[in-house]
Amino acid sequence: MFSNKAINVIFLFLLLLSVALVVFIFFVWNDQEKLDEIELVDKNDELNYWIDTCSIEHDGHTISVSGWGYLEDMPYIKHEVYVKSKTGGFYKLNTIRTKRVDARKFLKLEDEFDKIGFNSSLRILKENDFTKDIIFTMRGPYGKKANVEYTCK
């Protein structure tokens, strides 16, 4: 059906396409858009949070933050984490929600609060531009929002 040469050409094409796709996905995931400012709100007493880890690694090119947070009576919220830049502005970290049954049980919350955890990270490929100051923001339904500033140790 196909000659060995044709199979080799198809294989080489698919191999190069796979490598190009991996490189493309890497740069999309590690998007380093710098924001001039972010919308902050005054301290909100309904904000409950805990930062488990906050680390800056690889000579300051990677930051990772994990923990949990929720707003009173709002189990379904969006977590956002920003890090301040040394040259002004902010970088938004890639953040995902995670299950934190341990925190929910410790806080004696209802089952809907299982996904109050978050993991955030960002890699800067250029220069070391992170400070140790992060801003943790939570957005609830109906426009409710809260944030807190935290300094990594």
TrEMBL record:
Keywords: Membrane, Transmembrane, Transmembrane helix. The chain crosses the membrane at residues 6-29. This is Uncharacterized protein. It comes from Marinomonas ostreistagni.
